[in-house]
Amino acid sequence: MRDLLTTDGLGHDEATAILDTADELKRTLLGREVRKLPTLRGRTVITMFYENSTRTRVSFEIAGKWMSADVINVSAGGSSVGKGESLRDTALTLSAAGADCVIVRHPASGAPHRLSGWLAETRTSVVNAGDGMHEHPTQALLDAATLRERLGSIEGRRIAIVGDVLHSRVARSNVHLLATLGAEVVLVAPPTLLPHGVEQWPVTTAYDLDSQLPGIDAVMMLRVQAERMRGGFFPSAREYSIAYGLNEKRLAMLPDHAVVLHPGPMLRGMEIASPVADSPRAAITEQVSNGVHVRMAVLYHLLAGEEL
Ligand code: CP
């Protein structure tokens, strides 16, 4: 694997190898006072975030540091992008400076794919840390790691992805990966927040959340992305919360073993009620800590010379 740009086309064996490596890294580091492995000593990882992030940026930085890579963070505001430098020139500059891997988040769908093309003749790998409304592959991998941990397996499980599917790169990456891993996915959303062409996706769709809850193994709540809704938000926030918010009453309708996920950042009281987010049924903090191990695994497979 040279780059990680999408989960569309990531094979079952490739995805499983990343998840198995993440498990192994987690086991290796568990209970250690000093969480540092020498695996990527001498390698340089650069994060380049053109959109805000807490979880993805921090966990990639921790992942690189725990594997002894040199990690450098570049933000659009603090770089020559602010002087008008293009994405291509920025990428070629970082590669020429010695980057073994560039991790990029960008508001434009497809930006990491362009970067990958520009850097194809170099030694620099590209990881997509979220591009517009397109994909967020490491989020889907950490979600899969969390589901495996909580449920024991993914194959044959029924997973509901609920809410603003239209604007969600998390949903797109999860749909591809969960289908590859053999899960049954149902997208639950108001018609206005389902994308055109969803009937071509390997999913079923539903508008009514309550009818789905008793039969599912995991519910993945999505953030409502108001910043991507230029024409306003329909239904209203109140209507949305009433119809699609995961509250305590809905939590009680889930099977006992079912797990609640949310990629964060959460809008408490909107898509998820605080008592649900903080309940033992929710695996939201586990998703964050699994994110570090999954991102370590991705860097390992990209940079440590282990072919998948
Ligand atoms: N889930 C996720 O991508 O969170 P951040 O935007 O904080 O990185």
TrEMBL record:
Carbamoyl phosphate binds at R55, T56, R105, H136, Q139, G264, P265. The keyword Transmembrane does not apply. Residues 156-302 form the Aspartate/ornithine carbamoyltransferase Asp/Orn-binding domain. GO terms for biological process: 'de novo' pyrimidine nucleobase biosynthetic process; 'de novo' UMP biosynthetic process; amino acid metabolic process. InterPro entries: Asp/Orn_carbamoyltranf_P-bd, Asp/Orn_carbamoylTrfase, Asp/Orn_carbamoylTrfase_sf, Asp_carbamoyltransf, Asp_carbamoyltransf_Asp/Orn-bd. It is an enzyme of class 2 (transferase). It holds the Pfam family OTCace. One of its GO terms (molecular function) is aspartate carbamoyltransferase activity. GO terms for cellular component: cytosol. It catalyses: carbamoyl phosphate + L-aspartate = N-carbamoyl-L-aspartate + phosphate + H(+). Its EC number is 2.1.3.2. Residues 2-149 form the Aspartate/ornithine carbamoyltransferase carbamoyl-P binding domain. Pathway: Pyrimidine metabolism; UMP biosynthesis via de novo pathway; (S)-dihydroorotate from bicarbonate: step 2/3. Catalyzes the condensation of carbamoyl phosphate and aspartate to form carbamoyl aspartate and inorganic phosphate, the committed step in the de novo pyrimidine nucleotide biosynthesis pathway. PANTHER family: ASPARTATE CARBAMOYLTRANSFERASE, ORNITHINE CARBAMOYLTRANSFERASE, MITOCHONDRIAL. Heterododecamer (2C3:3R2) of six catalytic PyrB chains organized as two trimers (C3), and six regulatory PyrI chains organized as three dimers (R2). This is Aspartate carbamoyltransferase.
